[in-house]
Amino acid sequence: MSDAALPPLAISMGEPAGIGPDLILRLYAERNARDLPPFVVYGNIGFLAARARRLGLEVPFVAADPTSAAEHFASAMPVVHIDGLVPDKPGDTSPLSAKVVIEAISRAVEDTLTGACRGIVTAPIHKGALYGAGFRYPGHTEFLAALCARGGVTPHPVMMMAWDELRVVTATVHVPLKDVPSLLTPDLLLTTGRIVAHDLRTRFGIDSPRLAFAGLNPHAGEGGTMGKEDLDIIGPAVAQLAFENIRAEGPISADTLFYPPHWRKYDAVIAMYHDQALIPIKTVAFEEAVNVTLGLPLVRTSPDHGTAFDLAGTGEGSTASFMAAIRLAHLLTGGVNRMRQAAQ
Asked: Tens digit of pLDDT for each residue in 61-100?
């Protein structure tokens, strides 16, 4: 199927006080130079128009649905309009906009699950600004998983950061470091490994993915002398995955695993905690890494940065990660790898 025949990508506008809307508008204004695939933005047209004026961008808008987005994309930004009061106040969150932000995500997910859109790219949100509107999730990813629940079953989301051939997954995510050892279980690592292997095959087209599991303790526990978790939890999980014909190795000492000649032997590295995974990839690709959620019945990507309140409304800040997120969502949902990488 040609790119022109594919459904559009869905993009949720994210926190209005942050940089997400700016990046969406700037990339749309450069759509021809970037060779962008058609997308439809879920958000408030009045707010987006005000932010475009603030940025000095001549961006026309049209209220649309996913079925008509592609025909409008060349001449106007198609927007699934969400009613509500959304102030254009960069850096200043407002409780007025929270319901619009939440509904934008919900409707983008719904349209992606039905096939009207082929994948979703989410702009960053600010959870604190949403709590007053009933948002009760630890993060964006958990909310997406809840929206994808069917038959009383909520999928297990897995966070992957991807750049080039470096893909890192964190078994535990936004938890205190002191809690990590108690949260690591063979079942958690088995579930994570199975999901990563499955999505690398079905989404990334890697027939026989190779997984590396980082050790939790220094030197992967050094035979149990510096902690038993590597022997008692990680090792047995890796052995079970290998028994299931998943090419898994570990635990491998994390201080050497991320040396490029080592990680390049694997299709993904599964780390035990947040910083163990994110420090290496942010060191080499701070502006170009992409957050990919595995384990969901849809493709979801997101730029690897937050709301950047200090840059919102200024026209500054790199579009590289958001561009990479669109590019990866495009490729993972059947698009042709032809998008040009213009200067950031």
From this structure: 999 999 999 999 999 999 999 999 999 999 999 988 999 9
pLDDT digits (tens, 9 = 90+) for 138-164: 889 999 999 999 988 999 999 999 998
Give the separation between CA 296 and CA 147, rounded to whole angstroms.
Answer: 10
What's the number of CA atoms in the CB half-sphere (13 Å) around residue 327?
22
- Asked whether the beta carbons of 25 and 65 are under 8 A apart, the reply is no
What's the helix, strand, coil split of the chain in %, to 5? 40, 15, 40
β pairing state of 120-122 and 166-170: unpaired
Q: How many CB atoms lie within 10 A of CB 207?
A: 6
- Compute the distance between CA of residue 209 and CA of residue 199 in angstroms, rounded to an integer: 10
114: exposed, middle or buried (Cβ count in 10 Å: 0-12, 13-18, 19+): exposed
DSSP string, 277-297: HHHHHHHHHTTT-EEEEESSS
How far lies 137's CA from each of 104, 297, 311, in Å?
Answer: 16, 19, 26
Please list the residues that pair with 301 across neighbouring strands: 121, 292
User: Of 332, 6, 335, which is closest to residue 200 (Cα–Cα)?
Assistant: 332
Angstrom distance (rounded) from CA 323 to CA 121: 10
Contacts (Cβ under 8 Å, ≥6 apart) of 258: 269, 280
Instruction: Decide: 221 and 228 in contact? Cβ < 8 Å.
Output: yes
Contacts of 184 (CB under 8 A, 6+ apart): 171, 172, 216, 229, 233, 234, 272
Give backbone dihedrals phi and psi of 65, rounded to 5 degrees, phi first: -120, 170
- 15: pLDDT strictly greater than 90: yes
